[in-house]
């Protein structure tokens, strides 16, 4: 992990915010081929923590712009015209976050002491969809204050985009 070695060598990095966007590697119960990617991500987290590098891991779950324009239809390139496949039993909740909201939260968290050393949350796509809609991995855990923070709670002044608001853009 060359970047971690470079951070340690520099010795003046105030906070490392890796490209950790997406599902939280520490809370997914995912199948291959996506599992290998999340295992590497979790190992990077452990190494950053073990090396004492100040960090913020931003886990935002699903990018709204990636999944909502197709109504989460694997392989689709636009809104389905006549049929939508519901994954799982239709009752599992998922979290979709607008990319602009992710950027806003990340920028606000860069120098926020409340975010220091915290995590804020096609075949690969199918493994990820299984993790969310079958296992419920977006909502099957509590965010413990010692290891993470919920963006909507620490930045209540930001108006985040709802799924309804996002879907209305597509109409």
UniProtKB/TrEMBL annotation:
Pfam families: NmrA (PF05368). Transmembrane segments: none annotated. Residues 2-117 form the NmrA-like domain. SUPFAM superfamilies: NAD(P)-binding Rossmann-fold domains. InterPro entries: NAD(P)-bd_dom_sf, NmrA-like, NmrA-type/Isoflavone_red_sf. PANTHER family: PHENYLCOUMARAN BENZYLIC ETHER REDUCTASE 1 (PTHR43349:SF35), PINORESINOL REDUCTASE-RELATED (PTHR43349). Belongs to the NmrA-type oxidoreductase family. Isoflavone reductase subfamily. This is NmrA-like domain-containing protein. It comes from Oryza barthii. The lineage of its organism: Eukaryota, Viridiplantae, Streptophyta, Embryophyta, Tracheophyta.
């Amino acid at each position: 992990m060359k970047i971690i070695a470079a951070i340690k060598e520099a010795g003046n990095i105030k906070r490392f915010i890796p490209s950790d966007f997406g599902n939280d590697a520490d809370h997914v119960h995912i199948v291959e081929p996506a599992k290998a990617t999340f295992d590497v991500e979790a190992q990077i987290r452990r190494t950053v923590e073990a090396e004492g590098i100040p960090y913020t891991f931003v886990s935002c779950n699903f990018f709204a712009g990636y999944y909502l324009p197709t109504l989460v239809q694997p392989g689709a390139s636009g809104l389905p015209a006549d049929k939508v496949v519901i994954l799982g039993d239709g009752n599992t909740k998922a979290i979709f976050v607008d990319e602009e909201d992710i950027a806003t939260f990340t920028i606000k968290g860069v120098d926020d002491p409340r975010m220091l050393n915290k995590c804020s949350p096609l075949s690969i796509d199918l493994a990820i969809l299984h993790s969310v809609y079958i296992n419920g991995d977006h909502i099957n855990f509590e965010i413990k204050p010692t290891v993470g923070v919920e963006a909507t709670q620490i930045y209540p002044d930001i108006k985040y985009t709802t799924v309804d608001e996002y879907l209305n853009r597509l109409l």
